[in-house]
Amino acid sequence: MGEPQPRGRFGEYGGRYAPESLVEACREVDEAFREAWADPGFRGALARLLAVHAGRPTPLTPAWRLSGELGVQLYLKREDLTHTGSHKINNVLGQALLATRMGRRRLIAETGAGQHGVATATAAALLGLEATVFMGERDIERQALNVFRMRMLGAEVVPVTTGSRTLKDATSEAMRHWVGATGDSHYCLGSVVGPDPYPWMVREFQRVIGDEARGQCAAELRTGVPDHVVACVGGGSNAAGTFAGFADTSARFVGVEAEGGAGAARGRLGVLHGCRSLFLQDDDGQITEAHSIAAGLDYPGVGPEHAHLRDLGRARYVTVTDDEAVRAAVRLARTEGIVPALESAHALAWIIRAVAGGELPAGSTVLMTLSGRGDKDISTLKELV
Ligand SMILES: *Cc1c(COP(=O)(O)O)cnc(C)c1O
């Protein structure tokens, strides 16, 4: 999983479908990122921030009791233990440092549940930048705690009142706002979606998950490499970062989507937010709403690299229902003492089903990325558990 070839393309997906002024801004981000990523000074500064502020490396935890019950060896890559509680911080610290290097003084971001918004507000505070976060009005109502966290951190939260007033509209609005602010602002996109170079750049910033896990598996597992690598997929950044660390191995990749947000499993070719990829659409080609109990999986499409990995057969994409995810979250809490984010619980739910159905044979080794902690989901869960 290297640089997209030809430039900006993953097979027939990817590209930079944006108004001329944003094409130019993306070109600048692309150039600055290439330079920074080749600069040991930049990499060193980012590694230090990830260590001293975000708490990396995160542990690889053997899920002892659950493994015993399932008859497979399950290992959890613990992104829930990072500062702010999900993998989003890895990407955001990278982009915030890049923005500083480019002389930008403000970060613009979109957010759905608020996890990416909180991570962006955090990185902005840390590096002395301003932050403007676009958030759908409906999500603002549903996620009061994260809205408060962003404001506490000094970010401006802008309510988006267009369309369905959720993540898709917040992303459109953030991009529109960037058009008029490219000179002093960097658009800090939260997943492996959007125009080139974002899908590639965000995956590189999330690669730290896979690279760390690779070394930890080499030390912990008898086989060195797990048989299966499993992660949940919203836009696809925690999965892409995890897969990247095992690209040169024979590990089988599984991306787990929400039943109501299955861009890779059920989407059709389209263009949204500057990118050609797979999106949920109605018969007229209109992009439809995604629905999931896990707000982070509520994106109606998937990043272009996942669409390509699917076509190549290198990764497979499966879906899990809200119910299965809730049951998996409870099971992990009660066997391992870990309350996962509902997003991450989707990955576990598939593993549990695949063991029952014989797709994961007894004795298999399975690495799963636990993308975040469940605290943010308590108000949802307490109605159901
Ligand atoms: C945002 C989020 C996701 C989904 O985003 P990806 O880009 O697919 O990784 C998954 N888990 C958590 C905890 C999140 O906050």
TrEMBL record:
Which EC numbers characterise this protein's activity in its record?
4.2.1.20
What is its pathway?
Amino-acid biosynthesis; L-tryptophan biosynthesis; L-tryptophan from chorismate: step 5/5
GO molecular function per UniProt:
tryptophan synthase activity
Q: Which residues form the Tryptophan synthase beta chain-like PALP domain?
A: 54-372
Q: Name one GO cellular component term.
A: cytoplasm
Carrying N6-(pyridoxal phosphate)lysine, the residues are 88
What cofactor does this chain's UniProt record say it requires?
Answer: pyridoxal 5'-phosphate
Q: Which UniProt keywords apply?
A: Amino-acid biosynthesis, Aromatic amino acid biosynthesis, Lyase, Pyridoxal phosphate, Tryptophan biosynthesis
Under catalytic activity, the entry for this protein gives:
(1S,2R)-1-C-(indol-3-yl)glycerol 3-phosphate + L-serine = D-glyceraldehyde 3-phosphate + L-tryptophan + H2O
Recorded superkingdom: Bacteria
Family stated for the protein in its record: Belongs to the TrpB family.
Q: What is said about its interaction partners and assembly?
A: Tetramer of two alpha and two beta chains.
What this chain does, per the record?
A: The beta subunit is responsible for the synthesis of L-tryptophan from indole and L-serine.
- Tell me the protein's name: Tryptophan synthase beta chain
Q: Which organism is it from?
A: Nonomuraea terrae
